[in-house]
């Protein structure tokens, strides 16, 4: 998804929290805390959040969730620029970059709490590291390849790669040391001022202390308001290198074609040459058609994904309220009849199924960076099994050994959970599912087998395609998301029959 789409998603998540607080302002009970925590978990899928907070109408913090567990209760935010903007517009606001409570550089996103009389009762907000957010959308760590630079409305750098000469973070575009690094280049200044006026720029050749770059930039807007500015910079040495490589390749092709033409004229005369040209034309037409078909399919998938994400997102908050309310009702009524317990269990299963389908949609359309670390498979499978419903008549056989994988445990747990749920459906809630581990010199191998009827042969080639499903209640996105996550780990996932098994191969050295 784009930067603008993800920023919009952040405001939508905060909006959902305010919907609850509109009817329960300042009511910090277990239910409101649970709803806030669920929404924060959703926000963390977009960007890790350092702090969540709620204020009263004097804009003093009355509740916060903080990664360092430091209480911000009582902190007055009324003088903050983004708060002043919310008071004027009654709309969400994005702050400029600033050093936060954690002594680290961060930005704040805040959303107004507006009551039924359209009066401002306070706000909710989050604070996060902008580098972690923008890293989802481009390279902000390696200056030796194409990289991304982000500035705020104060012309301050909030995300940029580190380089040996200057640390941009927190500095402003017009600061002396920044301008010295840019050699006071008028083209770069023109590019930036064009963006500040709301215009996307074509390109500018910029000479810096590290060499020459080509830069292009665009404003980043949320609800038609420019919040940040994105500049993509590319070292011209890499462009010249690519161009030289292309020229060299074309010379070889030209020489080969010339030699082939001489032989063709000598042996087969002009008629054969015409045949070759006609064949080449047909091949090119076919290739163009394939590209057009692929682009059409990609455009449709992108549009469907954007729409599905919005619908799934809009369903999540009321579903969270239903779930929390149901759990509270159960806790308040301990002496339920068997029939009432069965009704609550059916309700829980239905909520879990809807939550899983919403997760499948959001996992598919969101681009989440892979954070690899050594992790024991046994810990991951324990986490997965504690979060999925395993019917009584389904037996899951865990591996008799353990492996330490180098992977993103959160994302690989999503893959394993998806495969186990599919296996439970395949055995129709009555069968055996075996999880097996093995290894090769360069790969760790995870295999999930089931005793179900198998996958029809005609479906094996299509099973990982987006929107392909054989289930009446499926989204067709679960296995597509699994494939995407595994490939982000430079791995491979395959499906096969006899027995039915999904096998994941993850490189030992990712």
Task: Estimate percent helicity.
Answer: 40-55%
Shape: globular
Number of strands: 18
Sheet having the most strands: 6 strands, antiparallel
Strand content: 15-25%
Low-confidence stretches: 242-275
**SSE order, one letter for each helix or strand:** HHEEHEEEEHEEHHEEEHHEHEEHEEHHEE
**Average pLDDT rating:** 77
Structural class: alpha+beta
CATH homologous superfamily title of the largest domain: Histidine kinase-like ATPase, C-terminal domain
Number of domains: 3
The CATH topology name of the largest domain reads: Heat Shock Protein 90
CATH architectural label of the largest domain: 2-Layer Sandwich
Number of helices: 12
> What is the CATH level 1 assignment of the largest domain?
Alpha Beta
User: How widely separated are the two ends?
Assistant: 25 Å
Rg (C-alpha, Å): 28 Å
Question: How would you describe this protein?
Answer:
This protein is α+β, with helices and mostly antiparallel strands. It has 3 domains: 3-133, Beta-Lactamase, CATH 3.30.450; 142-237, PAS domain (Beta-Lactamase, 2-Layer Sandwich), CATH 3.30.450.20; 373-507, Histidine kinase-like ATPase, C-terminal domain (Heat Shock Protein 90). It has 12 helices and 18 strands. The strands form 4 sheets. Strands 1, 2, 3, 4, 5 and 6 form a 6-stranded antiparallel β-sheet that branches. Helix 1 (3-23) packs antiparallel against helix 2 (30-46), helix 7 (236-332) runs antiparallel to helix 8 and helix 8 (338-365) crosses helix 12. The radius of gyration is 28 Å and the shape is globular. 29% of the residues are buried. Residues 242-275 have low confidence and may be disordered.
């Amino acid at each position: 998804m784009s930067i603008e789409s993800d920023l919009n998603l952040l405001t939508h998540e905060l909006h959902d929290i305010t919907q609850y607080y509109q009817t329960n302002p300042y009511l910090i009970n277990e239910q409101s805390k649970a709803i806030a925590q669920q929404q924060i978990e959703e926000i963390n899928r977009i960007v890790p959040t350092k702090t969540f907070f709620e204020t009263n109408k004097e804009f003093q913090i009355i509740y916060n969730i903080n990664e360092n567990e430091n209480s911000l209760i009582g902190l007055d935010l009324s003088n903050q620029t983004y708060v002043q903007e919310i008071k004027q517009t009654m709309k969400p606001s994005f702050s400029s970059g600033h050093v936060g409570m954690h002594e680290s550089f961060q930005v704040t996103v805040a959303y107004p709490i507006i009551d039924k009389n359209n009066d401002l009762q306070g706000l909710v907000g989050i604070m996060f590291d902008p580098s972690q957010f923008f890293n989802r959308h481009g390279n902000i760590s390696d200056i030796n390849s194409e990289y991304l630079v982000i500035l705020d409305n104060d012309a301050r750098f909030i995300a940029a790669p580190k380089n040996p000469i200057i640390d941009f973070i927190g500095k402003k575009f017009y600061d002396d040391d920044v301008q010295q690094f840019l050699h006071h280049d008028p083209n770069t200044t023109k590019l930036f001022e064009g963006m500040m006026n709301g215009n996307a720029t074509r390109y500018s050749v910029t000479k810096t202390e590290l060499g020459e770059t080509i830069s292009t930039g665009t404003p980043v807007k949320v609800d038609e308001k420019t919040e940040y500015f994105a500049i993509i910079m590319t070292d011209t040495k890499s462009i010249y290198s690519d161009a030289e490589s292309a020229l060299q390749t074309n010379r070889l092709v030209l020489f080969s074609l010339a030699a082939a033409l001489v032989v063709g004229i000598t042996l087969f005369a002009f008629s054969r040459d015409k045949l070759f040209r006609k064949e080449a034309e047909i091949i090119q037409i076919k290739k163009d058609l394939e590209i057009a078909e692929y682009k059409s399919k990609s455009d449709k998938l992108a549009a469907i994904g954007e729409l599905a994400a919005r619908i799934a997102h809009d369903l999540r908050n009321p579903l969270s309220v239903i779930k929390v309310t149901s759990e509270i009702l159960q806790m308040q009524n301990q002496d339920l009849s068997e029939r009432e317990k069965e009704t609550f269990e059916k309700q829980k299963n239905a909520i879990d199924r809807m939550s899983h389908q919403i997760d499948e949609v959001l996992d598919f359309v969101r681009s989440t960076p892979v954070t690899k670390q050594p992790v024991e498979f046994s810990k991951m499978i324990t986490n997965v099994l504690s979060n999925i419903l395993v019917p009584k008549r389904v037996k899951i056989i865990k591996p008799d050994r353990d492996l330490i994988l180098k992977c993103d445990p959160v994302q690989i747990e999503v893959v394993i959970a998806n495969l186990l749920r599919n296996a439970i459906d395949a055995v129709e809630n009555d069968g055996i599912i075996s999880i097996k581990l093995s290894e090769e010199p360069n790969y760790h191998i995870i295999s999930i087998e089931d005793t179900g009827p198998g996958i029809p042969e005609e479906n094996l080639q299509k099973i990982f395609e987006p929107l392909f499903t054989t289930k009446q209640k499926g989204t067709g996105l679960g296995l597509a998301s699994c494939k995407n996550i595994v490939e982000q780990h430079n791995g491979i996932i395959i499906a096969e029959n006899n027995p039915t098994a999904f096998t994941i191969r993850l490189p030992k050295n990712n």
